[in-house]
Write a structure and sequence with these properties.
The protein is of the alpha/beta class. The protein is built from 17 helices and 12 strands. The chain is globular. The mean pLDDT is 96.
Length: 453
């Protein structure tokens, strides 16, 4: 951080009387605002009841701490571009507290009721685990105080098991049992912090749970160790009485060449195979879904259909780039398809829509933080409205029902119920002959969707 910025940060007291976002008031709802009015909601009206719930209940927006308050615009080709006047760049407890106070002012002015964090985003790592835990205790004491003051809840917390060099070969899947034990001790504390702050979920993202080469990897051993690690987490969660939902967040690659929790269906298969599906759900990040070669909404829909959708890290990426760009979601059609899945499962609670997104490296002013979140929230509000109209209109539902109507009776009903045999199918074909060609009418479905978006 530059010297002037460091001096400004040091001049600020730790007290609540400091205003970090001067000149920016609580974001209002102004549906008639013009195109250049960007510090207001034009579509997101939290108290508005739509399809039986308020917008706030359907959307359950959350701000992530790591990108929003620890992001500095760093990329592999250049240094930091973003400085914040409250942050002196140090890993001191004082700076961590000041940063946290700034965060809760931001959340309050934005009107968001949830937040998320990694343990190491929030408090500095100490010389050993004991000191690190003391630091985390001190900072989360303040977090609890600020949550109560501002009426803000913790959507989920998680442990950073990927950044420190000790985790270069993974955490739960590390070939060194010493590292696995360290990761377990860190998650133990994470679950305790989750309980302390009333977290509604706890997330596992295995950033380095994978491999760079199969030549030096015992895949089955590593997956078995991961499953046993998750079983320890379940046991400890129940032991301490933590009520939050456990979530696994899929990603196909980056930083590893291959990540074990590749996509939603991979995670479903893993959980079913190791008898963990009753204890975990999935936190889908669409940018990760796209990295797996799927469409934006793919993992949201697949997880939901199997009753495994727990939460969404609402961001997007640039498929033409091919890496995890963590951009704010601004595509209304994508938001509509996500919200259609959420409505069809009657909501996403206790999960939510967490903006695991960062302003661009070139977006360096404080207003950009607000504008990015406001734009994304309005995008999902529009998506919610469009999805409700699509569902309540019933046109697409009837089209799909008609497309699968052959499974309502006869041989189709037997196939659907799992009662048919190969012999019966053969006999049916001998009588019914060659099937007729029936159009899938994809373009018609796309036109119907566009009518509502």
């Amino acid at each position: 951080m530059s010297s002037p910025a460091r001096k400004r940060a040091k001049k600020q007291a730790d007290g609540d009387e400091v205003e970090f976002f001067k000149g920016i008031s609580k974001v209002p709802y102004k549906p008639d605002a013009g195109p250049s009015d960007v510090l207001c909601y034009k579509h997101y009206n939290p108290a508005e009841v739509i399809h039986g719930k308020t917008m706030a209940d359907w959307l359950r927006f959350s701000v992530c701490y790591w990108h929003t308050f620890r992001g500095v615009g760093l990329d592999p080709f250049g240094g930091p571009t973003i400085t914040r006047h409250w942050d002196d760049g140090s890993e001191s407890i004082e700076n961590a507290k000041r940063r946290l106070r700034a965060a809760f002012e931001f959340l309050s002015k934005l009107g968001v009721k949830y937040w998320t964090f990694h343990d190491r985003d929030l408090a500095p790592e100490g010389a050993d685990l004991e000191e690190t835990n003391r630091n985390l205790d001190e900072i989360t004491d303040l977090a609890k105080e600020l949550m109560e003051k501002h009426g803000i809840k913790l959507l989920w917390n998680t442990c950073n098991l990927f950044a420190h060099p000790r985790f270069m070969n993974g955490a739960a899947t590390n070939p060194d049992a010493h590292v696995v034990a360290y990761a377990a001790a860190q998650v133990k504390k994470g679950l305790e912090i989750g309980k302390k702050l009333g977290a509604e979920n706890f997330v596992f993202w295995g950033g380095r749970e994978g491999f760079q080469s199969l030549l030096n990897t015992d895949v089955l051993a590593e997956l078995t160790h991961a499953a046993n690690f998750f079983k320890m987490a379940v046991d400890y969660k129940e032991k301490i009485g933590f009520q939050g939902q456990l979530l696994i967040e899929p990603k196909p690659k980056e930083p590893t060449r291959h990540q074990y929790d590749y996509d939603a269906m991979t995670v479903v298969g893993f959980l079913k195979h190791f008898g963990l599906s009753d204890h975990f759900k999935i936190n889908v990040e669409p940018n990760h879904t796209m990295l797996a070669g799927h469409s934006y909404e793919h993992d949201v829909v697949m997880a939901s259909k199997f009753g495994m959708l727990g939460s969404v890290d609402s961001n997007t990426g640039s498929p033409d780039l091919g890496w995890d760009t963590d951009q704010f979601p601004m595509d209304v059609k994508n938001a509509t398809l996500v919200m259609k899945a959420v409505i069809e499962q009657d909501g996403i609670a206790p999960g939510g829509l967490n903006f695991d997104a960062k302003v661009r490296r070139e977006s360096t002013c404080l207003e950009d933080m607000f504008i990015a979140h406001i734009g994304a929230m309005d995008t999902f509000a529009r998506g919610l409205r469009a999805a409700v109209k699509l569902i309540e209109g019933g046109v697409m539902k009837m089209m799909i029902a008609d497309r699968y109507s052959s499974f309502k009776n006869g041989i189709g009903a037997k196939i659907a119920k799992g009662n048919a045999t190969f012999e019966e199918c053969e006999e049916y074909i001998k009588k019914a002959g060659e099937p007729k060609q029936i159009s899938g009418q994809q373009e018609k479905y796309e036109c119907v969707l566009n009518h509502y978006v």
